[in-house]
Amino acid sequence: MSTSVEPTASPDVGDEDTGRLDGASKFRIFSVLAVIVLFTEVAPMQYVMVSAALRQIAPTFPTQGANLNWAIIIFGVIGAASSPLIGKLSDIYGKKRMFLVCGVLFMIGCVICAVTSDWLLFLVGRGLQATAIATAVISYGLIRDLMPRHLVPVGIGVAATGLGVSALAGPLLGGWIVEHNSWRAIFWFLFVFTVVMIPLVIVVVPESKLRVPQRLDVIGAVLLGAGAVLTLVYLDNGQNWGWTEPTSLAYLIGGLALLALFPVVELRVKQPIMDMKLLFTPRVSVVLFIALLASFMIGYQSYAVGYMTQSPPEATVVSEIETATWDQVKAGAMQQAQAQAEAAAKAQLPPGVELPPGSVVVPEEAVLSQLPPNMVGVQMNPGYSYGDGFSLLKFATHIALAQAVIAMIFGLVAGLWIRRSGARAPLILALVIFVGAAVAYAALGHGWVTLTLISAVFGVAFGIYYAATPNLIVEAVPAEQQGVSAGMLGVMQAMGVAIGLAVATAFLHANPVRADVTVTGTPTVTQDIPLLFADRGYEITFWFIAGTSLIALLGAIWMKHGRTPATGGTAY
């Protein structure tokens, strides 16, 4: 168990070498912060836009089927695996330099995705774009090195939740592009956004002068990156591949083996990619553990609320099934009546005389009049109570936008709070809301108004959480370990999202929506309705998420770290 360390008023050793903007004008300081934060917003903005465009992207790659989800999966997998490596490179070679490298790689990925119709090349482009995730990792280090100490907690809070570009442009512009343009326009927009931002970064943001004089631990980087990739691939695809299939388990076993080997190797090399003693110190390991469990809620909430509100209402599905079944009944009755009429006409002809084509026409009205009324019945078993039939744009304006804006505001508020009292208390509040929101999602109604109100409250916790966790890491590690430590935080959050969605997928597929279809005179037929799940599947998952969030909350209550005002990174 670690003990809290009182903050010091004086800067740490070597502070004068970081390029800190002490004495600069407020305009200069906040211009630097704004450009840093705007540059990092390209990652969440593209996530919203590309997720929205999957239905339009699908016809370009018609043979991929369910594999189309890899357009999203690969971004998270590669981003999570590369973040510690890029974070460490920023410690060694310069944070601004790696910031720009990530931007150039992202632009190259945008161009590839915008012009290609080859699936593998498209995935290569998405993998290059995934390096944008690491810009958030680097931004925490840049803010720590450049901002005056008293503004570091606030700056990290703003960086964690953004300035509103992704919150506003992501849902609104993404929805508009999807509805009015080719999906390729999304990648051209992202390309242009990055082209505009890179010169601003070059001109406005100074380079941090802090360097770690060591070589990159290539073996450690490969073990960590490959282990994270294999494990995340299993978690993201286990439901489709089969959790216990030998080929699936090979990914899990291989990934866990590499991750287990990582600390063993790191303890033996002279210049490890990360100090293992620091990693397992409670002030770091507890934060990473909390981030893993809290991310279950973050990943599932975004998926579930969007999916439920954009699903069709039950009445619409019942009507579609009734219509389709009635059309089948009519077609069968017409075929039978036509066959009987033609047979009767042939019987009246002399031997050897063929019946002229089209000479017998059975009136549809006459056939339908013989069918009993209410011949088709559809009963949902089980049914579902959610489903508002929202378009993506309507979902953005009715639900996502309010949550995102509230999160942005409370990210700033939390930064101010953390500067005054430390990050532990805000984190506890965020996790209390996580638990309460999960219980509310599970226990209350599933109409869009209810979901909007719960999501708005969840936005408060979302902003506070994303301000608290990076501040805790900044306060927990020395400056030379900032990049890779923030990278490890990114890995744990990506793992948490993947595990949460994997558990959710299992619960949802175990509770499909079914329809009992009855046609007079025939046995009842039960059929699963694709892409729809019973209320119970969502509710069980939210109860599970409430439990994991409660465990994270207990960890935050127990945590000794973060109980004193944030120092901007001088505590360790």
Provide an overview of this structure.
This protein has 572 residues and is mainly alpha-helical. Helix content is 70%, strand content 4%. The chain has 20 helices and three strands. The chain has helices spanning 26-40, 42-57, 70-93, 95-115, 119-129, 133-146, 152-161, 165-180, 184-204, 218-241, 246-266, 276-279, 282-310, 314-348, 364-369, 392-421, 424-443, 448-476, 482-509, 535-558; strands at residues 376-380, 512-519, 525-533. A three-stranded antiparallel β-sheet has the order 1-2-3. Mean pLDDT is 83; it is low at 1-16.
Main-sheet strand order equals 1-2-3
Strand proportion, as a percent range, falls in under 5%
Major sheet attributes: 3 strands, antiparallel
Helix/strand/pairing category: mainly alpha
Rg calculated over all Cα atoms: 28 Å
Give the helix level as a range of percent: 55-70%
Extract low-pLDDT stretches: 1-16
Average pLDDT score: 83
Shape: elongated
Termini separation? 16 Å
Number of DSSP strands?
3
- Give the H and E element order: HHHHHHHHHHHHHHHEHHHHEEH
Oligomer: single chain
**What's the helix count?**
20
